[in-house]
Amino acid sequence: MGSRRMIREGSLGLLILLGLGLFGSFVLWLRGFSFGKQHYTVVVSFRDIAKMQLGAPVRYRGVQVGAVSEINARSNHVDVAIQITPATLRIPRQVRIEANQAGFIGETSIDIFPFQDISRAAQNTNPLDKNCKSELIICDRDRLQGEIGVTFDELLRSSLGLSKLFSNPQFFGNLSQLIQNTTVVTAEVTALSRD
What global pTM score does this model have? Predict the structure, then answer.
């Protein structure tokens, strides 16, 4: 009788420990932590981040290489910390970094577009080294400037501007006058070419 009770209590304790371990692993996975993968962090300053969220994808040459790990609003800009994985990925220093919205729900991501290929000297530089050459590649803890790319807000503003332009009676009067002048010139050119 005593041994059954001991087995039952031991099994229950083991089950509780297993549940806590799975829960802890799940929380670490949600926060983007992974065992054995090293990454480096870069801070990008934007004027506006177009509704970017934590965990937003970071793409380099169209391939996802990281995620947004932290967003901090400042008085004149927004600092966005991104984690680049793997830590051996070398990105040239001369890049354009854009915050773009895509898809039906307008998910904002960061796209990194290089202006040049990695030089031979930069291929031997590690982004995590304390002597990393920031003039050649993007290194751990570097600060970069980003810009707004394609956003739905800008598209809506442009559409509103066009609709205001097309609803302006003076615009239609000018357009009508242009069409009439073009018709007259075409008729005169046709008559001139016959002569």
Answer: 0.64
- Token pair for residue 96? 């354009």
- Using alpha carbons, select from 79, 167, 96, 88 the residue that is nearest to residue 128: 88
Q: Is 32 left (phi over 0), alpha (psi -120 to 50) or beta?
A: left
Among the listed residues 187, 109, 105, the one whose alpha carbon sits nearest the alpha carbon of residue 148: 109
- If you average pLDDT over residues 181-187, what whole number do you get? 84
Between helix 152-166 and helix 169-194 the angle, nearest 10°, is: 70
Select from 76, 85, 89, 69 the least CA-distant residue to 45: 76
